[in-house]
Design a protein that fits this description.
single chain, Poly(a)-polymerase, middle domain, 2 domains, two-stranded antiparallel sheet, 17 helices, Trf4-like
Length: 551
Amino acid sequence: MRLAPRQPARLSSKITRRTQAQSPPTQNEDIHTNSLRKTLEAHRASNRARLIRKVYSRQDPPGLFRPYIPPENRAGYQPPSPLQLESPPARISQEASADQTTAPSSKRSPRSRSQVPNSKAEATLPLLSPGHAPAIRSIGAKDPSDLSQAPWLKYLPTTEETTGASIYRDASTYLNAEILALHHYMKPTPEEQDTITRLSREISSLLETVVPSPPLLFGSRRTGLALAHSNLDFLLPVKDESRSPDRTRRPSPHRPQIRDAHLALLRRVEEKLRDTADFQYQSSSPPVTKDRSPDLIHLSHSSGLVLRARHRPTGLLLQFHCGEGIPALTEYIQDYLVEYPSLAPLYTSARTLLEAHGLIGSQPDGNKPTAPGTGTGISPGALLMLLVAFSKLNHGQFPGPHRLGDQFLAFLKLYGKQIDFKTTGVAVDPPRFFNAQNTPPPPPPPPSPQSPPSQSSNPTPAPASTKNQYQDYAAALRGQRSLLSTKRTAATRGNIPATQRLCVQDPTHFMNDLGRSCARTSQIQNVFATAYDQLRMGCDTWEGKEKGLGL
């Protein structure tokens, strides 16, 4: 018996349009008219998505640190009204800022326990957030909403405490006072400093049976630039007999034998910390899955051997390094702070500004992958060297008291608008900006005594300025040429991101680049440029109102 061929069911155009309009778009996306296999896979994926859902916990487990979200990026944000800038200028005490090179150390009111930041994200409050009105405001304009976003304003002197000539004469004077107030707020309180000292002693006693020498505290905690949420950097001294100062030629400190010894020592420290309750993850709720708990200890191999451990009671990040002794850069920083005391408040403002945008350092937790489109920000040491170079190049340009505001504006303008970090390097000692155009090549070698110069040859002598410059800064110029050569080699090999990294010459080792790990130079310059524009606009608005303009 012959069967008649199947006739496809025909629907009228009106019914077809009605069916398409009533069917949900998700069903159309799951149907592939030309492939049955793709249709089945799409339906299976849709079914799995309906069965397995990601449930978010209402309370963050200990060890999870969420980033700070600027107010302008939060839901329901309303920009402040221009009426907040119409308050009359307040007064400032005479001893709040005696001159540009001193920072306040007395008359400090202790913060309450609720004001002490529990993590880096909570303590990182922006000096100037993008999208806000300029951060030039009066004391009389303070309200609870302002103090919640700018808690350092409570460290400004009030109007009742100031009399006589101690008045905010201009916007720069007030910005100077606000920079000092922010520096005062971000510094560790005496209670926090006592906690750091006690924690350092506990770490030394804990590792007494593991390390050959007691760990040494270095970094910002040693130089005095530490903020309330700064990390604790410990150095584990490891002697290297082959690198004795008596030897003329010493081997590299990073050779494989030494690296293996450092790795073995850090492994022993890691095991000791994992057996300590203060470095173990604890949660009152039972685990839902069989996955292991969040790891508070991680040994990083990316940029040198660094052991990172999160101290659970305080939330501070501890970093352990191995080396022969305290880095020479630490002594340089201490000397720079004595020569330019204004570096400390300027560094606090610049770091807080970048930290609010997530542009300081790398991710502290190595077990968390870096999101696409993000990278390592500028290191605190490189940022400080940018400030040192700026201070040296502008030595004597800001005389008199209350000039921190002018210095900060000039710093933002220089590194945000005038210098291109992608093509220009920054040298600290001697201070200069170097690139392929202004870095002279090495002079030709002197003629050999065995072969006197030919009578017919009359080479053109090099300019005297070039010879003197090379003789005075020979070692620094060799290092700068080496750093520029590294960028040229990366460009030749097509490694474009490496050519656009920050370049800051290490004053203790001219061949070392302190900014090599910074891959977000464009974002850093954009933040500096935006902050300068907003602060400049706020200062101009302040000056216009003082002169009676625009009223």
